[in-house]
Every structure is written in structure tokens, then in C-alpha cells.
Amino acid sequence: xxxxxxxxxxxxxxxxxxxxxxxxxxxxxxxxxxxxxxxxxxxxxxxxxxxxxxxxxxxxxxxxxxxxxxxxxxxxxxxxxxxxxxxxxxxxxxxxxxxxxxxxxxxxxxxxxxxxxxxxxxxxxxxxxxxxxxxxxxxxxxxxxxxxxxxxxxxxxxxxxxxxxxxxxxxxxxxxxxxxxxxxxxxxxxxxxxxxxxxxxxxxxxxxxxxxxxxxxxxxxxxxxxxxxxxxxxxxxxxxxxxxxxxxxxxxxxxxxxxxxxxxxxxxxxxxxxxxxxxxxxxxxxxxxxxxxxxxxxxxxxxxxxxxxxxxxxxxxxxxxxxxxxxxxxxxxxxxxxxxxxxxxxxxxxxxxxxxxxxxxxxxxxxxxxxxxxxxxxxxxxxxxxxxxxxxxxxxxxxxxxxxxxx
Length: 407
Hints:
Blueprint: E1 6-12, H1 16-27, E2 35-40, H2 42-47, E3 56-59, H3 65-75, E4 80-85, E5 88-90, H4 94-101, E6 107-111, E7 114-115, E8 122-124, E9 127-129, E10 135-137, E11 149-150, E12 157-160, H5 161-167, H6 179-189, E13 193-196, E14 202-204, H7 222-235, H8 241-261, H9 267-285, E15 313-317, H10 322-334, E16 339-345, E17 352-355, E18 361-366, H11 383-398
Parallel strand pairs: 1-2, 1-4, 2-3, 6-13, 7-14, 15-16, 16-18
Antiparallel strand pairs: 4-12, 5-14, 6-12, 7-8, 9-10, 9-11, 17-18
């Protein structure tokens, strides 16, 4: 398969800076040719500066992620349609890994690793889910427990177009939350094959939104309640729905209590959030499932990038060189050159990785500290040896040629 077989749909609301960073990351996918469909609110439409003539841009007038994804599907022209959140960035080999998996004509849908805010630890690995919305961690290949199907993570999932043509689109009664899980259950119960693609890696930043602050304090739980009611009405038959609701409420209450202990919430806000959750549960019970029929694409294929980007350049240095390294990284990125920058300080500090707003990958931490959190807390390395080790660790997903030039 070629990149021209892949459309990437990005839904964005209230996060223009994050959307721009996501598009920068997509522009550095290792092979050119994928198309990008952005469904955004007014702020997001202003954020696509520099990309507007290379993307399919649709308006999101009402905050409904399922409706926005369905609009993206209708505009997408490729046979494989992938989804990534606006506050996420793919590793450069993400599209290659997905397309390699879909060479198998029997594969209907796929998902892959989602890394958390430190850019190294797993936020979501391989999981399964059942009709009560209960998640379990699992191995990448199963077997799955009875009643469970592979969970497809909304910020990193891909489908054959004909899945939507046969099963319908995302359920628009789920304005936010469980929309991806609903689709996973429908795919699994239809007996369609899914796959965990370990090389299709996405970094997810959990940016602030209308529903949460930047440090993940919820501002509203209404949509979580409403979508839970819709989901359970569709898929919970034969299970203890009452217990599932009770468990969900308890989980949300525990989450809020933990935030209160960290002085992120007070008692009044906790009560208000739980009341909003219960209001959502009640409102969701009155909603009818709305799964639209989706057919052939409405627009021709539009390549996002026409020319493959060069092999990434590796820059490295110490904290006192940071400003100069940032200037050099920015210069290279502006010239179309992908960059991976490593900054090591003489400490055992844990490492973090991020894709910067300037468009380069940056890993920073202690020369003697762990990157992978399973490593020893203190390690002895020379600067050169540590750089070589970290380049090897990320080379497969970053598209770096091991043994190439480093600076």
C-alpha cells in the first residue's frame, strides 16, 4: 500500500495551538502522500495557517465529536481512514506502520500505542472492552475473554472505509466519550478482524479543553454521563447495567477525591461535578442512537505533502547550549528538515520527550537518569554512549538511520 491509501481525520475544538502542532507532526510523516481532513471550530480554522491549501478543512459548528468524525469520513477519499486527536502527535513512521498492517485484506481496524505526557511511558497499551464499558489490559494478540473485544483508542485508530459503509458511522448520540468504544464493540461483535500495531505510535498530551483544565481537572462530567447511558442502552443487554453505572459513578467520585486531596478541587466543585454526571446519565437515557449511513467519499484525494521529508537530523548538547540548539533546530525545520534534539544534564533526572511547537522532537533529562521508567534509577554513561543509546531506542519509530551523522 502507498500513503495515498490513507486519510487522517483530526477533530479540533478550542485548541488551536495544539492543532497546529499536530499538523506539523503530520507534515513530517516519513512518506508523503497521505491526506489530512481537519474538522475544526472557528479557532481551529485560524490555526491551520501554512496548511490551508493542503488539507480538507471542514467546520465544526456544534461540539459533537462523533458528528465531526462522520463529516471527516465523508470527506476522506482513501480506503484507510485513521484518526488522531488534535492534542496528539504521531511518530514519523505512524502511517507506514498502519499501512503495513492493512496490507492484510482481512484487517478491518487497528490501533496502537499511545504515550503519555512524558513522551516515553505508555498511557494506553493493548486493551479489551465489553458491552458494559469495562476495560481490561491484555496482550497484543489475545486471546480475549468472552464478551470482550479489542479496544480502539480514539486518538490512534484506523479503519477500512468499507467498515463505515457496512456498520455506519460514529454514533452521534455520543457527543463526547465512548464514541470510539462504541465503534470497537460494533466492529468486534460483527466478527471483523482488528490488530494491535506496535509500531504505530502516538504521543498524547491531554491539553486543556471545554471539559478539563490543562492539569486534567474536569470542568464537566455531563457528557461522560450522557454517553454512558447511550452506550449501556445499546450494548449492556445481558449484563448488570445498574452495577456498571454504580461502578462508573464510584470511579469518577474516586477520581475527584484524589484531585481534592491534591488541592485541585473543593467540596462544592466535587458536588457540582457529580450532579452534572447524574444529570448527564438522566439526559442520555432519553437519547436515541444516531448512527448515520456513510457511503462513498464526497471529495477527491488531496495529498498533504508531495515530497518525502529528508532523514531526520540528530542534534545534541547540554543545558547551557539549549538556546543555540533551539535556534539551529528551528532553522533546520524551517528548511524542511526533521530534527530530533537530545539535551542531557549531568544528573539522574528522568527523561521526557516532546514534539515542540517549533516542530522538532526534543528529549531532555539527566545523563545518568532513566528514559524508560523500568530502567535503573541511576546509570553511568559517557555523553557519547548515552546519545547513541537513546538514538537506537527511538530510531525505529522516528525513522532515524542508526549510525548516521549526529551533532
